[in-house]
Amino acid sequence: MATKSIVRENSDVFVCVDGKMSHIKIEDIIYVEHNSRAVFLYTVNGVIGIPYMTLNGIYHILGKDYLFQCHKSYLVNRIHIESIDRTGNCIILKNYPGTVSVGRKYKGELLREMHYLPS
Question: pTM of the full predicted structure?
């Protein structure tokens, strides 16, 4: 079984997986994906996989000052959002290929948070 740990101190995030420590800035996290019993942090420098971690666990550790849950499997860093495709239900990211899905359950709150809808 893999050993894991993730800690946030101010804007610094420390991730330890199988004895390897990675240091990243919270601003460098583009989005977080939960897939197949693992969480993947997509950063400006690559992808970090954290096995056996829940998305909710990551959200509580990293906080909601930068990250926003937009789908049951995704957290997105609000500073990396280029735009929101309201008809395609996806987020277009700045300087990153591809999109992140927006779930129906999260769409209204996302649009309010990003000032696309009145409060």
Answer: 0.89
Closest to 26 measured CA to CA, from 61, 53, 74: 61
Structure tokens at 77: 């860093």
d(CA 65, CA 78): 9
Longest dimension (CA), the chain: 47
Residue that the structure tokens 């919270």 belong to? 26
- Which pLDDT does position 1 carry in this prediction? 41
DSSP secondary structure string for all residues of 81-116: EEEEETTTTEEEETT-SSEEE--HHHHHHHHHHTTS
DSSP-derived secondary structure for 34-78: EETTEEEEEETTEEEEEET--HHHHHHHH-TTTEEEEETTEEEEG
Q: What is the mean pLDDT of the chain?
A: 89
DSSP 119: -
pLDDT in tens, 1-36: 454 589 999 999 999 888 889 999 999 999 999 998
